Amino acid sequence: xxxxxxxxxxxxxxxxxxxxxxLRAKYVADNFLKEVKLVSQTRNAFYFTGKYEGTPVTIxxxxxxxxSIGIYSYELYTEYEVDSIIRxxxxxxxxxxxxxxxxxxxxxxxxxxxxARYAWEIEESLIPHQGNTFDKIKDTAKKLGLPLKISNIHSxxxxxxxxxxTPVIAQQQQCLAVEMEAFSLFxxxxxxxxxxxxxxxxxxxxxxxxxxxxxxxxxxxxPMMKLALESVK
Length: 233
Ligand code: HPA
Description:
Elements: E1 15-18, H1 22-32, E2 34-40, E3 47-52, E4 55-60, H2 66-79, E5 84-93, E6 103-110, H3 115-120, E7 126-128, H4 133-144, E8 149-155, H5 168-172, E9 175-179, H6 182-192, E10 195-205, E11 210-211, H7 214-220, H8 222-232
Parallel strand pairs: 1-4, 1-5, 5-10, 6-8, 8-9
Antiparallel strand pairs: 2-3, 3-4, 5-9, 6-7, 6-10, 10-11
Helix pairs in contact: 2-6, 4-8
The structure holds hypoxanthine (HPA).
Hypoxanthine binds at residues 90-92, 156, 159, 178-180, 203-204, 206.
């Protein structure tokens, strides 16, 4: 048991898949895992542990934003001996270089967030993915013939803003897409010597206002979920 996760020691697998949304964690557990057990539901942030083709895996929610995933990932790494966390989420595309449904694997996350500086005295505003999980996902995508866009991404603290243009840091670091969590996940993994990757599905194209509807979302995310699961077995 940790401050925000009620699972017993040993009930969390070495690899954790983290969507933002608890119901998405439930969807993956219900549809893709066997021998599933709900191991934590504190704050309705569901964590399920089960087996994917024989390999133990946990899937649990990060919540939204760097502070939230910062809490869950830290407790998973330090109190449950988790080795690797794969964030699976959605992102907005800053340009039409990406299309709806594209899969994006984050090379590094850029952010204006003060999380890394004040938590770990990491001064960089661009933090790379950590460990070999990124390579496993990349190799698995190749094996499955799934096209993958590899790019820096922007982890923003802001969803709604006055100026709709691409923020300066995203331009400077050549970020094709924006989400809100990878930066603090990568910062925690860097500080703790753990592995972390972020795999995203493009859910909206910011300049053209095209987006995947709420109804389409569940189905749209299946290739990403499968790729993440295949890469851990
Ligand atoms: N901004 C931030 N996070 C997101 C977006 C966005 O436009 N789309 C999906 N996640």
